[in-house]
Write a structure and sequence with these properties.
alpha+beta; 60s Ribosomal Protein L30, Chain: A; five-stranded mixed sheet; elongated
Length: 197
């Protein structure tokens, strides 16, 4: 068989596939750009619980909350007074923002945290919506630990932070300092049948 004959045979095979009905037809019409956009467009589920605080996020970290004192020749770790006061304030903020009578469901939890710190001195942004990634201290994962503990205490014995399976942390600077915690419970959304995107 010459190369031309081979090419003709391939073309004939494709023609037979195109003519085949139903699922046997593997060569389907190419989707338009609008169809592809509609297929991949996802409307995110609204959070089950949202905390929004219009003040600068906390700056202290779990490490800075601890001190060491020597007692009878032995070093002893202790929690600094300002850290205890800060933790009590955070817990009160979370408790005050909870809907009346709200009880968290059981199951896996997805959490999104957004921290917006004040702009540096002399720094300018075009609008209040413009955010600049904050790449300085405090460390993002360390600064979240204290609010996470306070949130766990505020939600009570029915919630444990080990239920968090997906955690998104973001840290910015902006004209309007604020911070928010958004939570989604997977109960009733096919828990155990989650699909990774």
């Amino acid at each position: 068989m010459t190369s031309n004959e081979a090419w003709d045979a391939i073309q004939a095979a494709f023609a037979r596939i195109d003519a085949a009905p139903g699922p046997q037809n593997r060569r389907r019409r190419r989707k338009t750009a609008e169809e592809e956009a509609a297929e991949f467009e996802r409307v995110p589920d609204p959070p089950d619980l949202t905390f929004e605080f219009h003040e600068a996020p906390p700056r202290w970290t779990a490490q800075s909350n601890r001190g060491v004192r020597v007692v009878k020749g032995r070093p002893m770790l202790y929690t600094k007074a300002r850290a205890r006061a800060g933790a009590a304030k955070l817990e009160a903020m979370f408790r005050g923002a909870l809907p009346a009578g709200w009880v968290p469901p059981t199951g896996a939890v997805r959490v999104e945290v957004e921290l917006v710190y004040p702009l540096r001195k002399g720094e300018r942004v075009p609008s209040a919506e413009t955010l600049i990634p904050h790449t300085e201290k405090p460390d993002l994962t360390n600064v979240w630990k204290s609010p996470e503990d306070a949130l766990t205490r505020a939600l009570g014995a029915v919630f444990d932070d080990s239920q968090i399976y997906d955690l998104h942390l973001r840290k910015f600077r902006g004209r309007s300092p604020r911070w928010a915690v958004r939570m989604w419970w997977e109960t009733g959304r096919g828990q155990g049948l989650l699909e990774l995107e």
